[in-house]
Amino acid sequence: MAANEDAAQEFEPKKKPPTEDEKRKKKIMPGSLMKALMRPGGGDAGPSDGDQIIYHCTIRTLDGVLVESTRSDYGGKGTPIRHVLGKSKMLLGLLEGIPTMLKGEVAMFKMKHQLHYGEDDCPISAPDGFPKEDELHFEIELIDFFKAKVVTDDLGVVKKVVQEGQGWESPREPYEVKAWISAKTVSGKLIMSHTEGEPYLFTFGKSELPKGLEMAIGTMVREEKAVIYVTTQYLTESPLMPVIEDYDEVHFEVELVHFIQVRDMLGDGRLIKRRIHDGKGDFPMDCPLHDSLLRVHYKGTVLNEEKKVFYDTRVDNDGQPLEFSSGEGLVPEGFEMSVRLMLPGEIALVRCPPDYAYDKFPRPSNVPEGAHIQWEIELLSFETPKDWTGLDFKTIMNEAESIRNTGNKLFKEGKYELAKAKYEKLLREFNHINPQDDEEGKIFADTRNLLHLNVAACHLKLGECKKSIETCNKVLDANPVHVKGLYRRGMAYMTAGDFEEARADFKMMMKVDKSTESDATAALQKLKQKEQEVEKKARKQFKGLFDKKPGEIAEAKGDADGDQITSDLKDEVDGDSDETSFEDSHEAPPEAPRNSWFSLFWPSGRRLFESLGLNRCAIL
């Protein structure tokens, strides 16, 4: 029985800790707050947490002497108070009393001093000369209340949704936005209006609206209508309102008509995608984010004085669209990046810099070198890869082999990032495959190891030695005598300059598999050559360092070959080397020397490289 009670307590939902307002309300004693109805309101319920309340307040002593008021008739500014229940700092008596009111109601609250400014630790400071130790009458008119979207934490910008919009996407920098906008003072005086002719057009993030208004529009969706309350600190000058008078608050009525998605793809303003015709579906869920078979029409223009069109699928391809598979480097990088963020049926204008257009991609003969390009792209349709759910093991492995072969092709073409993406995608999919017997388990394990080693080869080609070694370890941790894993890791160690670790891996190869002796011997010979090369260069750079007499200071000086060392190493990292039977349809990883020489003074080649300032793989 006790065990059942303990279990029941364990699974009881934890109670939320009380809010500061709830703690304050516990101070209210019977008789300290009295309410008298002066004019009934309408509706069935009063305001609750999260509602914005708008009310007038007039405070008098019990003798009827006016203390202060928001009403202009009694010397106030005529501006009602605007608070958000649960968010704003309020007097305790009003915090308790206003939620009992209905819209349009007028009520008189008689408060002990502990429920207004006389409260201990009152969150609001009393005005100068305020009788905070007196019992007072607070006459409240609840003008309106509604659910509010708090845009700024200080409640300087609050939004009231009048009509819900469509979709979920909101404008952001640097979208182009069209909206009907009008502005009024708190008393209802019209300040400005863009509600006739054409909607107001502005670029989001360019300070073309008052700051608070733009912040609130950034929370709206297409076709939404809203009233936006903006206080003075957020009323900045802008083309919409060039002159800001001494307004305490402005109410903007806004209808978000439309916005054009404009995306800064690189974040530096060089590659810009501008949607000129909406597609079908929801962004980004219905975009070809993953590798897919895509069908597009496009028109390419060189952005020079002539603005010459160099290719148009509708003209130069007999009206047939371009069909290509993403993730395989078949189109310029900027082109593919943009298409991945399009919806079917969408048309977009893409302005692309040379390095994401044709400087690193086969360049059409009529496109000059270094040209900035504009593509007008229409995404007609796309097909996503086959879902493996429900497929038998053999079919899945055939699909995997096809994708791996695509990765191998990309690797041989020098597109190492794309090849790595293919292998890593397969490895993620492999997390959901469950072999049913020992034979399937062996095939699965062998294929997964092969993929890890292919990823390691890509890292090595990209100069990421540490990642290459870590990826090899995923194979060798499970099978320390995996020959191909030892070879690949040895190559990575050699590239990183960890020669002793490389030597250990190559020797282990021969120990566990005598048939690899010729390959391991060749690798050890190359390792020895690399050590000698680095030792020679280091001796040359440190020439004379230890020829000084005791007490003399010798300076290690670089020479004409100093910069070339770095260049040589980089060339070896990026270049090709001999292929072996361990490369799994890949070229062998490159080798770049790093030194373990001078062990008398420097215990490892790693430290020598640091002292030389050489450029090597990021192994540390």
How do you describe this structure in short?
Its EC number is 5.2.1.8. This protein has 620 residues and is α+β, with helices and mostly antiparallel strands.
Please write out the topology.
Elements lengths: L1 H9 L9 H6 L7 E7 L11 E11 L4 E4 L11 E4 L7 H6 L8 E6 L24 E12 L1 E2 L6 E7 L12 E10 L4 E5 L5 E4 L7 H7 L7 E7 L17 E12 L1 E3 L7 E6 L15 E10 L6 E4 H4 L5 E4 L7 H7 L7 E6 L20 E11 L9 H20 L3 H15 L7 H24 L3 H12 L6 H14 L2 H14 L4 H25 L20 H13 L30 H8 L8
Antiparallel strand pairs: 1-5, 2-3, 2-4, 2-6, 5-6, 7-8, 8-12, 9-10, 9-11, 9-13, 12-13, 14-15, 15-19, 16-17, 16-18, 16-20, 19-20
Overview of the structural elements:
By secondary structure, the protein is α+β, with helices and mostly antiparallel strands. The protein is 30% helix and 22% strand. The protein has 15 helices and 20 strands. It has helices at 2-10, 20-25, 92-97, 211-217, 313-316, 333-339, 393-412, 416-430, 438-461, 465-476, 483-496, 499-512, 517-541, 562-574, 605-612; strands spanning 33-39, 51-61, 66-69, 81-84, 106-111, 136-147, 149-150, 157-163, 176-185, 190-194, 200-203, 225-231, 249-260, 262-264, 272-277, 293-302, 309-312, 322-325, 347-352, 373-383. Helix 7 (393-412) packs antiparallel against helix 8 and helix 10 runs antiparallel to helix 11. The model is unreliable at 553-620 (pLDDT under 50).
